[in-house]
Amino acid sequence: MSSTRPDPRTDDDEIITWWGLVIEGYHVTQGKLMAAIAEEFDLAPASFDILLRLVRSPEHRMPMTKLAHEAALSSGGFTKVADRMVKAGLIRREPCEDDRRVTYAALTDHGLDIAQRSRKSAAEVLRQRVLAPLGETDSAALAEAMRTLREANS
């Protein structure tokens, strides 16, 4: 993506329409993805997000406060999701050996299996819903544009 200065002639309506299309495209695609994951694995979006973060983390575990922050959940909201995931046998809480203030969320064997299978299923949905209509070049450009926005607005 080009990092040129914005054109001051871009009219208000046009830029608002562009952003609306980004949001609408995201919502409809995310809805299809989450519906497929819920149907196949009975996972809520927050639980799926947490599983993905854990399966990609060293030792399949992360400090719970860091995980809550990365998943954009409040402490209380994360605790509720974590409680449901523990009850479902997807994660367990592990105390830190070096710092008793830290508790890890770690995948159980069952959680690892579900995380790996749901990640594979999500990738297939995204191949159909993003890669097929956009192609590899535009998909990569979209990801890079979103990365740029994330960094510029963090």
TrEMBL record:
Residues 1-151 form the HTH marR-type domain. Signal peptide: none annotated. InterPro entries: HTH_MarR-typ, MarR/SlyA-like, WH-like_DNA-bd_sf, WH_DNA-bd_sf. SUPFAM superfamilies: Winged helix' DNA-binding domain (SSF46785). It comes from the Bacteria. This is MarR family transcriptional regulator. It comes from Saccharopolyspora oryzae.
